[in-house]
Each structure stands twice: as structure tokens, then as C-alpha cells.
Amino acid sequence: MANSKRELFLKRRLRVRNKLRKVNRGKIRLSVHRSNKNISCQLIDDVKGVTLASASTLEKDLGVIGKNNVDAAAKVGTAIAERAKKAGVSEAYFDRGGFLFHGKVKALADAAREGGLKL
To answer: Which residues form a coiled coil (predicted)?
Structure first.
């Protein structure tokens, strides 16, 4: 019997998260969530259980509200890189969740790398 898209997504998300746990060793995690309308990301310290910084297309100061494209994702990536520098984070693991590393997710990661965040 074929799995539904949701079941495949959840299996992929758990597979990615478990691989990250094996190699993480207390580093910060850049977690990405993409919906049909928006994309958001967070820098998470799993040891302390706190969010250090976040960025989203829902923020007015980024000027991308209502835009659901690769350019908006790139702006979110540069914003999270700037906020990571302010929080004192220079290196993080990229947690794409169950999303494929393609399109908006890839644009966000590339923009974060260009902004100085080592992923």
C-alpha cells in the first residue's frame, strides 16, 4: 500500500533529524519550515532548549509579506545570517525538516551561507 504525501514527509523529517542528532554534538541548529504561503527559520540551541534568532516572510521589516518565491526566501536567509552574527553564532547545522533541498529551501540556505553563516 502506498504511503500518503504526509506520511512520506514525516518519515523524511524524522530521518533528517535523527542524522543531525548523531553528528550535532551540541551545535546550533538552523531549522526551516515552509508552508504554501510563507517560509520561516529559527536558530535553535537544543542543549538549552531555546531559540536564539528567527526570521520569516511574515515580518514587515523584510518587505516580503505576501510574497512566496525564491527571492523572498533569500531575503529571509540573509536576515537570519545577520541575526546569527548578533547572537554570536557563526556555525550551525542546517535542518531542512522533511522538505527537499530544492527551490526556496535551497535559496534560504545559500543566502545564509553568503551572509557569513557556516552551514
So the answer is: none
Domain extent at residue 36: 5-114
Q: Supply the CATH number for residue 104's domain.
A: 3.30.420.100
Pairing of strands 92-95, 28-34: parallel
Which pLDDT belongs to residue 24? 78
What is the rounded CA–CA span in Å between residue 36 and residue 78?
A: 21
How many domains are there within the chain?
Answer: 1
Do 99 and 105 form a contact (C-beta atoms < 8 A)? yes
Q: Measured at the alpha carbon of residue 101, what is the angle toward residues 65 and 84, in degrees to the nearest 5?
A: 60
Looking at the DSSP bridge assignments, the partners of residue 44 are 29, 51
Virtual CA dihedral for 6, 78, 60, 58, nearest 10 degrees?
A: 0
Q: For the segment 11-69, what is each residue's pLDDT rounded down to a tens digit?
A: 999 999 888 888 877 789 999 999 988 999 999 998 899 999 999 999 988 887 767 79
